[in-house]
Amino acid sequence: MIWSSLLAFAALTQAVPQGAGGGSTMLRFGCSQIVVDRIDPLVNPDAIPSPHMHQVIGGNAFNASIPSTDVAGLASCTSCNFADDFSNYWTANLYFKARNGSYKRVPQVPNRLLFNDKFTTQTQGGFVVYYVSDGKGKVTAFKPGFRMLVGDATARAKVGTGRKSQSCFRCYSGPNFGGDNAAPCQDAKLDTETLPSGQCLGGIRSNILYPTCWDGKNLDSPDHKSHVAYPTGGPHTFDGSTTGGACPSTHPVKIPQIMLEIVWDTTKFNNKADWPADGSQPFVLSTGDTTGYSQHGDYVFGWKGDALQKAMDGGPCQGAKCANLKVLTPDTASGCKVPSRYIENFDGWLDKLPGV
């Protein structure tokens, strides 16, 4: 596999997306949370509130609507490690449903140290972002105005055969990220397409992987998906295909693979006396979904100038200090925030999920 060499080199037990290794470039960086809010400028533009709650990272141009323009020119700060990334990334939140029927949001925790990347261990909320090229041919960075969506917030069951390409969950079997010893979504014993059914002593990790092929023309599409595609050889699965496959003729342009990696601290909710009486798993995504199939990731590109293209061209390079990209301190990045557009209680104990 393309990135087995990277795993061997790192001798780590941390997730690394498909395609990293050899002559590849892998940007890996943390981003603090800029807001938790019920708005969605991609799927529900201008709607305040949107149907469900999201957690958001990136630049402070995030709003109920984001113009299809150069987002980097609209933002004045970013919560990400790389100073030139004003993109926005947002995903579903995770909630714990107690036996008495009340809900509590599960907090995110920073990822472990990797490649001397101290930044991701000091993020506040938020999650880790990866951009990967496989080192096999030209990878074209996204253009201003580009946006895309992976996953389906309405899904409650397996859709087709491609689900493994989109997201997976890992139940940490012990503290300090115990059980994190293989790349995401490759090991059927470690990774599941659904939320874990049992207690996770070290928390739950969620990985969301985006398509790696573009039609070369459209910066968006009505469903925010049709302008991008996964490789013809099959997107990455539990049993081993990679992002290095050929792009289909309809989407011939190879783009960086984006992977989002969220770690939820479920350890505070491991008291079985608080779980449902029937023993079923008590966690629910902010979409109202207990299966996990509705996990999704929204993306609006916002890198400044040609910084991302230079980074992807500058490999081999791995980590959060590569490609001569300017980096921010954790304090500077975590200070970037946006105001909530729809004010409601989302962190206390709730009688029902926001919007659901």
Automatic annotation (TrEMBL):
Any Pfam family the entry gives: DUF1996
Top-level taxon in the UniProt lineage: Eukaryota
Record domain DUF1996: where: 40-303
Signal peptide: 1-15
Keyword annotations of the record: Signal
Signal is among the record's keywords: yes
InterPro entries listed in its UniProt record: DUF1996
Transmembrane residue ranges: none
The protein's name: DUF1996 domain-containing protein
